[in-house]
Design a protein that fits this description.
alpha/beta, seven-stranded parallel β-sheet, 41% helix
């Protein structure tokens, strides 16, 4: 198989998606739906009674739940101790059910300790290939880090950099190393996503799926907000950027969904938070929760006790009003660790 040729095709897809998104902001919705593997059925098991060998089997369909489940995720765990504190508070006193950990984050050790202290918090890998530090030394991955071991900061520039040929082996090595650092700390990730969503780059996405599937991890994030939701909830301060992101991730998501299915990976039917990044507040949760259906939905957040935006998101995550609405709607807040496949006959 010509992997180099396939890589060039995927890189071209990434560039075309960026070009399309940049010119789409004044166009009408194209009424296109992703041909992706929506997950609308599942089983939530009492994991304490299930043998470890049966806990993490991944299949495409689970038994039905009538009201739907919502996975509420905090990204950037391990980035700083202030982020870790916010995540701990949001889980202990609020509705947060999952957290995505940066293996190269400066506060990784504190993040690992915080996660391991909370048995109900569902951990995942927040794959970092931009705006952060690598796990491997620069000498092992010289073409994707600087001499201090840092990735390119800007995600757009990083995405274009990863279209260069000859980087696949270094990307694969670093992705594996990030998984292994979590594992050495005693953390078993149950989902994967990416810092600044750079995991949506088709080359990176396949590497991530391959490494995750080898570890029996079967949940991956595919950002999926309907255009109507983007129009209604986008942050005015972000201008037209949410529409560009909607277009780019729509194109990449359609291709990546096929890759996910190839590796037996699943994603929530609706993944929300992108259009409101940096400005998720209580009202956003109250509005968005009414729109989640009977499928599995994911809402991702970025709480942080050290920044105004992070404190705003933390306040939303511990809001009694949001908690009470979830109860009234009979939604089930869960982590990805709570989903298990039915036993094989």
């Amino acid at each position: 198989m010509n992997f180099q040729g396939k890589g060039l095709w995927k890189n071209n897809l990434y560039i075309q998606a960026l070009r399309f998104g940049a010119g789409l902001t004044d166009q009408k919705e194209q009424n296109r739906r992703r041909s992706r593997g929506y997950v609308e059925d599942f089983v939530i098991e009492d994991r304490s009674k299930m043998p470890e060998s049966e806990m993490h089997q991944c299949t495409s369909y689970f038994s039905a739940s009538p009201k739907g489940c919502v996975v509420i995720v905090a990204d950037d765990m391990g980035k700083s101790e202030s982020v870790n504190r916010a995540i701990a508070e949001a889980h202990d006193e609020g509705i947060l059910t999952a957290a995505s950990i940066m293996a190269g984050g400066e506060a990784f050790d504190d993040a690992a300790h915080t996660a391991l202290e909370r048995s109900r918090l569902s951990p995942g890998l927040h794959l970092t290939l931009c705006d952060g530090k690598a796990v491997l030394p620069h000498s092992s991955i010289p073409d994707i880090t600087d001499h201090d071991g840092n990735f390119i900061k800007d995600p757009f520039s990083a995405g274009l950099h990863y279209t260069r040929p000859g980087l696949l082996a270094q990307i694969e090595a670093e992705v594996a190393a990030q998984f292994e650092r979590l594992e050495r700390a005693g953390i078993r990730p149950h989902h994967v996503d990416g810092h600044h969503h750079l995991h949506m780059h088709p080359v990176i996405f396949e590497v991530l799926c391959r490494q995750a599937s080898r570890r029996d991890i079967c949940w991956i994030r595919l950002p999926n907000e309907p255009l109507s939701m983007v129009k209604a909830f986008r942050s005015p301060s972000r201008g037209t950027l949410p529409f560009v992101e909607w277009a780019v991730f729509g194109i990449l998501g359609k291709y990546n969904a096929r890759t996910a299915r190839k590796y037996g990976m699943l994603s929530a039917a609706r993944v929300c938070g992108l259009s409101r990044t940096g400005n998720i507040d209580e009202q956003f949760f109250l509005d968005i929760m009414e729109l989640t259906g009977t499928e599995i939905s994911e809402i991702f957040t970025h709480p942080d006790t050290a920044t105004p935006a992070g404190r705003l998101e933390l306040a939303a995550l511990v809001s009694p009003s949001v908690y009470n609405l979830i109860k009234e709607l009979h939604k089930l807040p869960v982590g990805y660790k709570d989903f298990t496949a039915p036993k094989k006959s």
